[in-house]
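User: Design a sequence. Structure:
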C-alpha cells in the first residue's frame, strides 16, 4: 500500500508539471504573436502612456527621402497641440537611420512607432516599368495595406512624404465621413484657383488620364472617363469600413489585373498607385475641403501659386517630379521652413549655390 501511494504521488506531481509546461508554452506563443504579426514588425521607440484621444498619422520614410519625411512630421508637430502618434513605415535597411533622425534632432519629443514593411507582400502584383521606376518603390504601396499595420485605431490619416502641413492636423482628422465611405480625398475638380496652373503644366484631372480606355476591361468598369479623379497622397481612412469592404483585397485585385491586362502603367498620369485607388473608390469617397490638399506644386519648376493663396492653404503637396528639396522647384521656402538637417549627413538639399 505504501508503494502504491508513493507511485500515485509521483504521478500526480508529473501531471502538475505537465500542466505547468503546457500553460507556459501557450503564454509564450501568445506573447510572440503579439510582438510580430503577418508582414509587419512593430519597432516602437518612444515611451507612451495610454491616452484617451490620439491622432494617428501614417507616413513612409525611404532611405533616400528621409529628410522629406522628417520635414512633414516637423510641420505637423509644430502646428498642433493635439496628441499625434506617428506611424513611420520604412524598409529594414532604413530603420536605424529613421530612429537616429528622430532621436538626435528636435523631433525626439514626438510620439512615434517605426513599422517595417516587407516588400514580399507585393510579389506577383507589380509589373516592372522603366518609364518611372521611382514610382515602383515598395513604400508607395503601403497605403494599400493599412489594416496590416495593426495600429488599432478606428480612423487614420495617411500622408505622402512630399507634403507640408500648415494647419492644425486635428481639423483634418475630425472631418465627417459619409456613411459607408472608407476614406476622404480631395477631388481634382474642386479647386478652381488651380485650374489655370493645371492646364499650363498638362495635369490630368479626370479618369481619362489614368486608365487606358482603349481596353475593353477598362470600359467594362462602367466609369465615365470624364469623371473627376483624386490624388491619394493625402486621405483620411475609416478603418472599420476599410476592413468591412475589403478595400485591400480589391486593390490587390486591381494590381493583379493590371499585371495581366496592362490597364494602366507608370507612363500614364498617376503611375501605378493612383489608378487602383481611383477604381476601388470611384463614387464611394467623401470629398475633403480643398484647402486641406493644395497640390500640383511639383509638376513644374516655373508655375506656382499666388502667395496670398498659399497662406490660406492648410496642406501643401509637391506631387510631381520637381520636389522642394531638389532643384529646380517652386515655393521651396515654405518647405525649407520645416526642414531639419540630417544628423547622418546623407540627406542634403540641392540648391544652385551648392556643389552637391
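Assistant: Done.
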Amino acid at each position: 500500500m505504501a508503494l502504491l501511494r508513493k507511485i500515485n504521488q509521483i504521478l500526480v506531481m508529473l501531471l502538475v508539471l505537465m500542466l505547468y509546461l503546457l500553460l507556459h508554452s501557450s503564454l509564450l506563443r501568445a506573447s510572440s504573436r503579439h510582438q510580430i504579426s503577418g508582414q509587419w514588425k512593430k519597432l516602437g521607440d518612444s515611451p507612451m502612456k495610454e491616452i484617451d484621444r490620439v491622432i494617428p498619422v501614417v507616413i513612409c520614410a525611404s532611405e533616400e527621402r528621409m529628410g522629406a519625411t522628417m520635414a512633414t512630421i516637423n510641420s505637423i508637430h509644430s502646428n498642433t497641440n493635439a496628441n499625434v502618434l506617428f506611424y513611420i513605415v520604412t524598409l529594414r535597411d532604413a530603420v536605424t537611420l529613421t530612429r537616429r533622425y528622430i532621436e538626435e534632432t528636435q523631433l525626439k519629443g514626438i510620439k512615434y512607432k517605426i513599422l517595417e514593411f516587407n516588400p514580399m507582400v507585393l510579389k506577383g502584383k507589380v509589373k516592372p516599368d522603366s518609364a518611372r521606376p521611382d514610382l515602383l518603390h515598395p513604400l508607395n504601396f503601403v497605403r494599400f495595406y493599412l489594416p496590416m499595420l495593426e495600429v488599432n485605431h478606428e480612423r487614420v490619416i495617411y500622408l505622402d512624404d512630399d507634403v507640408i502641413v500648415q494647419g492644425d492636423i486635428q481639423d483634418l482628422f475630425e472631418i465627417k465621413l459619409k456613411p459607408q465611405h472608407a476614406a476622404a480625398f480631395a477631388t481634382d475638380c474642386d479647386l478652381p484657383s488651380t485650374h489655370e496652373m493645371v492646364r499650363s503644366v498638362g495635369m490630368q484631372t479626370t479618369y481619362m488620364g489614368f486608365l487606358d480606355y482603349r481596353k475593353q476591361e477598362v470600359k467594362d468598369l462602367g466609369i465615365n472617363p470624364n469623371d473627376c479623379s483624386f490624388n491619394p497622397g493625402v486621405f483620411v481612412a475609416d478603418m472599420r469600413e476599410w476592413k468591412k469592404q475589403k478595400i485591400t483585397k480589391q486593390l490587390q485585385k486591381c494590381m493583379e489585373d493590371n499585371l495581366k491586362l496592362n490597364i494602366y502603367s507608370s507612363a500614364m498620369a498617376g503611375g501605378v498607385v493612383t489608378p487602383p485607388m481611383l477604381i476601388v473608390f470611384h463614387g464611394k469617397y467623401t470629398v475633403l475641403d480643398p484647402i486641406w490638399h493644395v497640390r500640383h506644386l511639383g509638376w513644374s519648376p516655373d508655375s506656382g501659386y499666388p502667395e496670398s493663396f498659399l497662406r490660406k492653404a492648410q496642406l501643401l503637396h509637391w506631387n510631381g517630379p520637381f520636389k522642394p528639396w531638389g532643384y529646380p522647384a517652386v515655393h521651396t521656402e515654405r518647405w525649407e521652413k520645416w526642414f531639419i538637417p540630417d544628423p547622418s549627413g546623407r540627406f542634403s538639399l540641392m540648391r544652385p549655390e551648392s556643389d552637391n
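Residues 25-41, 46-52 have pLDDT under 50 and may be disordered. The domain at 40-336 is CATH 3.90.550.10 (Spore Coat Polysaccharide Biosynthesis Protein SpsA; Chain A).
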